[in-house]
Structures are given as structure tokens and as C-alpha cells.
Amino acid sequence: MAKNLIFKKNPASLTKRVLAFFIDVLIIDLIIVMPFNKYIESITNGQNGFNYFYSFVLKNPDIIFQLAIISFIIFVLSVAYWSILEFKTRQSIGKMLMNIKVMSKKKGFLFTQCIVRNISKPITILFLFDVLYMVFKKEKQRYFEKISDTVVVEEVLQI
Length: 159
Description:
Blueprint: E1 6-11, H1 14-43, H2 50-59, H3 62-89, H4 93-98, E2 101-104, H5 111-118, H6 124-136, H7 143-147, E3 150-158
Antiparallel strand pairs: 1-3, 2-3
């Protein structure tokens, strides 16, 4: 007779979380950022490098508004990628591959929780703060996870 399997939800390991994040960033770069890179290259005559780009923007201030719009669109689409997937499936593609998932600490799981927990990811300095908070706290939660009342867990078979 088969025994009933019992799964325990443990906090996800930092390694799995980091790998899931990098998988998701790769997907976002391929699907969202790359098409905009081609547009940016077209308006900068295919030149690249920080010095060229900086001097080009200084000589063409009308480009700043276009770049701000592009940055905002990339930000919105990136947050939408994580938020919609996590709300619908509790996992992004990276989390699916790492077998970890997002859970609410409250009863129910709201879309606003997903937005709040993911809002820092496309903003490098904010995400750095978010991750450093996790490193120094015993709960191993990012700051934006804490304020959204969410946790990232992995299910482990309990024997």
C-alpha cells in the first residue's frame, strides 16, 4: 500500500533564487530589451560605447525623451512579465525551472502583491538595496517581498 506523500514548504535556497532570476533576466533581454536595442542603434547610427552615446545624447537632446519613453516601456513590460506569471502560476519561467514558487503570507494572493514584490527588479540600485536587505536579515526575504507579504519557497518531500 502506498504511503501518502507529505511535502513541506521550505524557504527557497539563495542559489535557486539567483539562478531563477538570471534565467528570467535572459528571457526579458531576449524578448523585451533586444527589440529596443535595435531601435536605439538605428537612432544612434549603429555606434556603441558609453562615450559615443553620451556625446551623441548631448548633441541631440531631443533623443533624451525618446530614451526615457523606451526605458519606461521596458520597465513596465519587465514588471508585467514577473507579476503576471507569478500571479497566474506562482512562478516565473526561471522559478519553474528551479522548482520554486511565490506564496502569500496572507490568506489569498493578490496581483498588487506581485507588482510590489517585483517593482524593484528593473531598477538596479533599488534591486541592490532589496537584495542586500535579504542578505542581512534572518528571514532571507527581500525588502519588497516583506512589504508585499510574500515568500519564495520550494516544496521538499518530508519522509
